[in-house]
């Protein structure tokens, strides 16, 4: 008989919350995306309990606002939204329910039966949350993603052929960003998006501990039945396979009713996962093995980002607004191909005229484009005399210059 999972303790959550502090520090208010499910119910309760302790009054949010998005995509959506609102109010918290106004810009027409709705629903949910944050003067929002969501996210990225760097999972804290900037596909958040933050305190804990926390504190939650329909979305299919693999007594699900697109992505996932160096990840892997594998991917990404931070601090030079200037000597010290790509992506994101954080600002992460930039910048120094300005995506022009001190820069 296995050991019962432990609920999340007060001091433990304090450490989780501390790991999520935005670079600008906590602001006076924090929102929580509250679907009424166990993950968001648990997070809302834990944040409320933590901030209600007077020991945490200094330099922490003073107000918690609960946000619920009613998709109106199933018959139970209104009841789920009502449950979420009642729970938030039972804690004495301000609550806002945002019903998606389908077909009213920037929202697309409501998905019809048989239409793939995963991307549309996700985009509409984030657009709704952003509007609700603006209306309530909230600049930080907490999401209830946990360690098992990390696995699903990493595997989904692998199903699209992502590299190990791209499959690193979600971050505890990230800037909201300016939006995708694709006409007709969601909002463009503009400069306001650069002043908004997403935090995910529960990324290090598994689903079983979230459920244990809800049980320990008698928190009532609702279950979204669509989460358990593997034929509905790729994420559901991945979740279904993982849950069966975690319990050897459960037979693997039949895939006859799954769409050709889902089956195609699952095959791509396995091929991409098999190509990872020094790491074994598979849909058939035990849950603990998947968690440790995805954690290793994420830690590798964070380590690379720290290296890029150090390089930029040491070798960037003052320059005009909207441009970036870096000493070529700094490039000589970057030998690792992963760090080189991460450095290029960071510069593209900063300089590109496309919305910050969008795929277009990253040259759509095309391997050929990033590879062209890397090969050009890290060519032998004696070849720099014939180097000419060039572009390889993202709307960024790379130009060699020589400063008065005769130091070559880009």
UniProtKB/TrEMBL annotation:
Query: Keywords in UniProt for this one?
Result: ATP-binding, Ligase, Nucleotide-binding, tRNA processing
**Which parts of the chain are coiled coil?**
none
Task: Give the matching Gene3D superfamilies.
Answer: HUPs (3.40.50.620)
GO MF annotations for this entry? ATP binding; tRNA(Ile)-lysidine synthase activity
Q: Name one GO biological process term.
A: tRNA processing
Q: What is its EC number?
A: 6.3.4.19
Q: What's a Pfam family in this record? A: ATP_bind_3
Q: Which reaction does it catalyse?
A: cytidine(34) in tRNA(Ile2) + L-lysine + ATP = lysidine(34) in tRNA(Ile2) + AMP + diphosphate + H(+)
Q: Which SUPFAM superfamilies match?
A: Adenine nucleotide alpha hydrolases-like (SSF52402)
Q: Which residues form the tRNA(Ile)-lysidine/2-thiocytidine synthase N-terminal domain?
A: 30-240
Q: Which PANTHER family match?
A: TRNA(ILE)-LYSIDINE SYNTHASE-RELATED (PTHR43033)
Q: What is this protein called?
A: tRNA(Ile)-lysidine synthetase
Lineage, opening ranks:
Eukaryota, Fungi, Dikarya, Basidiomycota, Agaricomycotina
């Amino acid at each position: 008989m296995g050991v019962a999972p432990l609920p999340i303790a007060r001091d433990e959550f304090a450490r989780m919350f501390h790991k999520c502090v935005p670079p600008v520090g906590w602001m006076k208010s924090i929102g929580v995306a509250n679907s009424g499910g166990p993950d968001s119910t648990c997070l809302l309760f834990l944040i409320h309990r933590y901030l209600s302790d007077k020991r945490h009054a200094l330099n922490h949010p003073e107000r918690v606002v609960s946000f619920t998005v009613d998709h109106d995509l199933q018959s139970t959506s209104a009841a789920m939204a009502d449950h979420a609102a009642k729970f938030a109010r039972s804690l004495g918290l301000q609550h806002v329910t945002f019903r998606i106004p389908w077909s009213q810009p920037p929202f697309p027409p409501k998905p019809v039966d048989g239409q793939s709705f995963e991307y549309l629903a996700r985009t509409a949910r984030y657009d709704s949350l952003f509007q609700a944050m603006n209306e309530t003067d909230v600049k930080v929002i907490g999401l209830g993603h946990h360690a098992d969501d990390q696995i699903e996210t990493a595997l989904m990225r692998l199903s699209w052929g992502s590299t190990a760097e791209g499959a690193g999972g979600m971050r505890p804290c990230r800037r909201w960003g300016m939006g995708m900037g694709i006409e007709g596909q969601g909002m463009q958040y503009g400069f306001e998006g650069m002043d908004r933050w997403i935090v995910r305190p529960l990324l290090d804990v598994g689903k079983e501990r979230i459920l244990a926390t809800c049980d320990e504190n008698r928190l009532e939650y609702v279950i979204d039945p669509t989460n358990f329909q593997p034929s509905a979305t790729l994420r559901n299919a991945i979740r279904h396979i993982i849950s069966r693999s975690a319990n050897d007594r459960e037979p693997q699900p039949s895939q006859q009713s799954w769409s050709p697109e889902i089956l195609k992505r699952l095959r791509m996932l396995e091929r991409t996962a098999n190509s990872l160096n020094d790491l074994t990840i598979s849909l058939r892997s035990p849950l603990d093995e998947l968690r440790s594998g995805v954690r290793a991917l994420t830690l590798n990404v964070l380590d690379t980002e720290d290296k890029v931070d150090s390089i930029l601090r040491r070798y960037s030079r003052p320059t005009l607004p909207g441009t970036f200037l870096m000493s070529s000597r700094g490039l000589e010290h970057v030998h690792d191909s992963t760090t080189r790509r991460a450095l290029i992506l960071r510069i593209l994101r900063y300089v590109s005229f496309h919305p910050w954080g969008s795929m277009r600002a990253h040259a759509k992460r095309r391997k050929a484009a990033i590879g062209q930039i890397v090969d050009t910048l890290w060519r032998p120094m004696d070849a720099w005399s014939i180097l000419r300005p060039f572009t390889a995506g993202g709307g960024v022009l790379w130009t060699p210059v020589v400063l008065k001190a005769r130091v070559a820069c880009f």
